[in-house]
Amino acid sequence: MTIPSGMSAQVMVGSEVTHGTAVTPNRGYEFRSESLKLEVGRIESGGIRPGVRVQRSSRWRSGRRAVAGDVTMELMTAGWGLWWKNALGGVVTSQPDEPNAPTVFLHTFTPGTLPPGLTIQVGRPDKGATVRPFTYIGCMLRQWSLSAAVNELVTFTASVIGRDATTATALASFVDAADGDPVPFTEGTLTVGGSALAVRSFSMQGVNTLADDRYFLGSPLRAKPEEAGLREITGNLEPEFDDLTAYQRFVDGDEAELVLLFQSGIIEDALRFETRITANVRFDDGTPNVDGPTMLQNPLPYKVIDDGTLSIEVEYQTTDETP
């Protein structure tokens, strides 16, 4: 029985072959919240007419259309390759030990050409217990973020822009993207420059600089947003003030390798579900200020920098044959 509240909501996703051409969503994701919506511009006349004090019904038209919003989810041990692929673009799939662990697949994601887009359908229950489908077409990740903190699950937020929306598409039956589990903070470790670093929290945000102004005469719909600038990946670490190592690295402008690893249960032959992020980073602050009598914190904001060998790499080890 459908519950007439957000408890019966669902998110389904499908990978488009051609940008803006809808596909049937076939992968369901558990989610915490969403803010996807269709934006429709209004074009109003500025003409002056004797005796008219309020805009007339015949003097405005609907204008350009666009989709924007976020979907916040919990990182899962399986089914997440789709999001990393749409966040970064490049992917290579391998099997670490095919003879002994044929069900284990390693997907390695790096900055590359972004996929054509996604069809995202949100099922929103009304008070009469009918789940109303809102289908968003031509969705691309303009931004993404990953965050982890003490006593929390790791979360991932996809910030999308899209081409159009419809409520005419039938509600897709919810099917889990994969049989995965959420990832808690207790399964994470972090190193900087090869040394372990104990942190209270970690965050990383990526921005894909997409040309979102590609509107042309004759259509209210935006052409595919192509990349139009460098990608920017930034974040923050929150360790305690241990010594001067982090501060000196900031002052000297020394780049370092950052490795964030989340290891979950064993899949097969001692190979585990893993999400490993390796990045070459520059730290843009490292000052441990005093804020009362408590232990000093040493916030470390960072930016991913391409040193010619490495910028960022996400290795996702799971049971999915394809991302």
From TrEMBL:
Which InterPro entries does this chain map to? Phage_tube_2 (IPR044000)
Quote any Pfam family the record assigns: Phage_tube_2
**What is the protein name stated in its UniProt record?**
Tail protein
